Amino acid sequence: MIGRHLRSALHLAWTNKLRFLLTVSGIVVGVASLVLIASLLGVATTVLEAASAEAKGENVLVVQNDFHEIYQNPDARPLDRGDVRALERTTMLEGATVSANTSMRRVPARYGDEDFTVLGLGVSEQTFEVHNLPLGSGRPFAPDDYASTRHVVILGADVDDGKPKVGDTIKLDGRSMLVVGILEKKAEMGPGGDWGWNHRALVPQRTWTMSFQGNKDPQDIAVRINTPPDMVGEVGGLITQARSVVDLVLMRNRDVRSFRFEGADREDDMGETIGLVIQLLLYLTTLFSMIVGGINIMNIMLVTVTERTTEIGVRRALGATRGEILWQFLAETTFIALLGALLGLFCALGLLGLATMALTHWVTAWPFRVEPWSVVVGMVFSTGVGLVFGMYPAMRASRLDPVQALRSE
C-alpha cells in the first residue's frame, strides 16, 4: 500500500512539475539551508579555529602598558627591561619563552620608485619563537645583528605587495636597510590589514632604538606558554595560571597596576554568545522556511482534494473507508514533503561543493563534509511537516459524502 501511495505522489509530481516545485519550494530551501549551514559551521569550528590559533597565537599571553592608568596616576610605572628579565628568571613559568617588542609604529618606506608605509618594530631573538614566525626565505638575524646596529630588516610576506626580495635594499624613514629575510605568510583572521605580521618590518632591537626610536623600554611583553601538542584548543586553564604568575611577578615592584593583558587571555564569552545567537537565528530561518513549505503543501492538497472529488466518490462507492481515504491523502502529502526534502538535500550538496572550492581558493584549505545530524533532522522534520500540514486536507477528503462526490464534475 505504501508503494502505491508513493507512486501516486511521484505521479502528481511528474505530471504537475511546476506546481510540485512551487509546492515544495519552502521545504527545499529549508532542508538545503539546514544542511549547508550546519556543514559550513561544523567545518568552521575546526578549520577556522585552527587558523585563528595560528594567527593569534592561542598560547601566547601579551602584556601591554595601560596608558590610561599611566597618564592618570603619577605612581604608575610603565613596562621596562627589568620586567622582561624578571619574567625570564622566574621559575613559576617553566618552559615559557619571553620576548619584548620595542615601540611599534608606522614608518615611511621606499622600495625602488614606490613610497608606502609599513608597521615597524624592534624585536628580540625570542620574538620569532614566541609569535611563531618562520622564514619563507633568507636568514634570521645573526647574534651580531642584535649586538650591533646593523641596518638589516626582515619583512612580512605582504610588505609592498611582496615585491622586495632577500638581498634588496629598502628605505625605512630615510635609512637604507638590507632585506635579509622574508617571513612565511601567516594566517590572518578578522580585518587584519596593515596591522598583521604580514605587513610588518622587523628590525633588531638595538638598531631600532638607536636609529628609529630612542626609548629602549618594551612596548609589550609576550609570554609563550609551553603546552603539549594534544592540548591545542584546550589551553585556557594553562593560560589562566600563567596570567596569575605574570601578574604576580610584575606587581612585585609596583603599587599601581599599570599594565593590561591581551592575546590569548582575553575573554571570549561575548564572542561565543554572539556566535550562538547567530547560529540560532540561522537555524530558525530554516525552520520558518519549512513551515512556509508546509503551508504551501496544505493549500495545494486542498486544491487536489477538490480536483479528485469524483475519484474519492468512486473509491467510497467501491467500499473504501474514511480511514483509508484519510491515510491515502496523508501518505501522499508526506511523500511529497520527503521528495522536496530530497531535492533540497541534492541542492545543498551541490552548493556545498561550490562553497568548498571557493573557500579553499580564497580563504584556506576547506574539506568537503556533510554533518549527518543535519540530514537526519531535515528528513525527520520534513516528514513531520507533511504529516501535520497534510492532516486537514486528508480529513476533508475523508469526510466527503460519497453520493455528492459522485455527482461532482
Q: Could you characterize the architecture of this molecule?
A:
By secondary structure, the chain is an alpha+beta fold. The protein folds into two domains: 2-52 and 271-407, no CATH class; 57-267, no CATH class. 54% of the residues lie in helices and 16% in strands. The protein has helices spanning 2-15, 17-56, 67-72, 81-89, 127-130, 143-147, 205-211, 236-250, 269-307, 309-317, 322-362, 372-398, 402-407; strands spanning 60-65, 97-111, 114-123, 135-138, 152-155, 169-172, 175-183, 200-204, 220-224, 259-263. The chain has a six-stranded mixed β-barrel. A hairpin with a 2-residue loop joins strand 2 and strand 3 (114-123). Helix 2 (17-56) packs antiparallel against helix 12 and helix 11 (322-362) packs antiparallel against helix 12 (372-398). The chain is elongated.
What are its keywords?
409 residues, alpha+beta, 2 domains, six-stranded mixed beta barrel
